Amino acid sequence: MLNISMEVRNLMLTKTMERLRGEFPAFTEDDYQLWFEKRLLLVLPSVTAAVLKQIPRDISCEAYMAVIAGLNSIYTEIPQERRRDVSKFIESFLTQNSQITGPACSGQMTSRKWLLQLFGRFSAEVPYVQLASYYRQPFEAYTVLDLLTPSQIGDMLIHSHTFADMDLASRFASFIEESNADDIRMILKESARAAAQQRMVVLPNPEVAELILIKYLALTSPQMKAYTAAEWNTTIQEELRYLAFVINATNLAYFVPQNYESFAAM
Prior knowledge:
The chain is built from 13 helices and no strands. The radius of gyration is 23 Å and the shape is elongated. It is mainly alpha-helical. The protein has two domains: 1-140; 149-266, no CATH class. The N and C termini lie far apart (54 Å).
């Protein structure tokens, strides 16, 4: 692969897109695919909001998906701040007033296909509630958990009413079993934050809360054995903020503080 400096790459992409701007109206879907999935790949990591503005907003759904496919293929090479530029481009496309493109591209797509083809990995840049609002049908979050960030899943738990519905809670419990402890900690912290924003005082279903607590404790108990007082404080005050009310003699066995400071913090 050619080693091109950032400055040269930026200039190449900017000049190429300025030249293509006049040709885009005559582009076919195959043309978009050729340019964004092949010819521009070397310089696409330099994408900016200004570059994306060169692309017509009323391009067809197929042309748009070719643009996203190309950008998605070099996602890890795009600097964080420019990923947000791409997500704003996506949001602008999906919220335009059109009956034939933009929001119409969702069609009869499943939530999973919609997320993969219309957002790609850039869905990580959009808060969950906002993301789901762009889907013109009920958003099936439990079919895309592997595509959402821990922060998004934390929000989803509150806005999908998972903590009130045993069927949804059982699906989340299965997800916990297949996940790593760090991700689940982050998810529960985010769900506690979202619950607080909704002015939630206590979770509505104690059976659901106990199920989630047990799954969480089973996953994290090996690490808990080495927790410091500060880690116990974080666990109780943040991760378990809305689950602690169902701690009882049975699940208390998972809590094994190593010293007085940890016990006091717990």
